[in-house]
Amino acid sequence: MADDLFEGLPPPSSNTLLPRQQQQLQPQPIVVATNINDTESSAVPAPKPILKSALKRPNPTQPDTQAAAPKKSLKFKTSTDASEAQVIEAMQKISSHIKNPAKFSKAAKLAIQLIQAGSVKSEISDYFFAILEAAMSSSITCTDPSVRADYHSLFSVAQNTKEHLNKKQKNQLATWTINAVVANDLYTDDSFVFSKAAGQIKEAISNLPVATEEEDAEEAKSLKDSTVIVDEGGKTPATDNDNDGEEAQADPFGLDALIPNSTKKGEKLKAKNEAAVKIREDEEETNRFLKSKREVLITCLEIAARRYKTPWCQTVIDILVKHAFDNVARFTARQRDAVGKLWASIREQQTRRKQGKSVNGKLDVNAFEWLQQKYAGEKISIRHSVGASGDRRAQQWLG
Hints:
Blueprint: H1 19-25, E1 30-34, E2 41-45, H2 65-68, H3 84-97, H4 104-116, H5 125-136, H6 148-157, H7 167-185, H8 191-206, H9 213-224, H10 237-250, H11 262-306, H12 314-326, H13 333-354, H14 367-375, H15 395-398
Antiparallel strand pairs: 1-2
Helix pairs in contact: 3-4, 3-5, 4-6, 6-7, 7-8, 7-11, 8-11, 8-12, 11-13, 12-13
């Protein structure tokens, strides 16, 4: 059969073509690409444009300000680049002003900044120690209410400099810390801080050695003769006489210089004398440290005893003074007498409180003693009824 299958049908239109066929029938634009190095031109078809979403297309006319702007960060300067000479000059100025009570607060804050900046080093520790020494030699005491907080802050932060101090300076700093930090904590209104300070005082008393008869005799002598005669060379006459006697005994006729082997002998004798002087200086420093530590602990006991009228302090003070009285042998004769008087005063006030008497005429008992007296005669049954009348008012309190 030779009939055409498409006979009688209308001619095909462009709408009936497939999309790919339409693209093949459409004329392609010609773009001339010219090479910069060659003069000849070649006709190549232009690439098809790739359509993107308008929301994702970057705007070239609008600069990226967030990427261009540098990130800002807040930084604090915690160290200083000052030279050693500048630090020494600053310490000297602080030492001269910290003695003045009106300038003490500002000078103490500057000293704390030097410590926190790491400016205190072993090479210049003497200049920093002079600041602490000047602070403790001020005309106003470290427990005065106007400077109490500044002293507490200064000597608390000064503990970070102990590694740069020598033995004598460390001992002195330990004594000053008890006076400026622990003693000031006894004035607090916080029961936890007060109890902690009392515990530190108890521990310090327990670490004291037992006082000797020599220390009692030295104390009596120092009370009788409060001043020590010192010659122009800065040594006591007794010390000079001892040294002269040793030298005279070592070389009574002064002939050691004429003997050839006397040089080595003289060096050995000199080293021996230096070792003896070093041992004697260490003993004197130990005795001085114990003496100052005992004195400041007595001061702390007196401060604590003056707060006995505060009800929540009474139990802690009772334990503290009783502990000092039990270890009274660790103090010297005059200090033993002071501890005995403090304990007698505390016992008298305890008796007055138990009897309901007080200086101001009010009932002077603490909360525990009041509750103890209140419920001492109460009858408690197995049915949780409290009191003879059988009421249940204290059921919640008793649990």
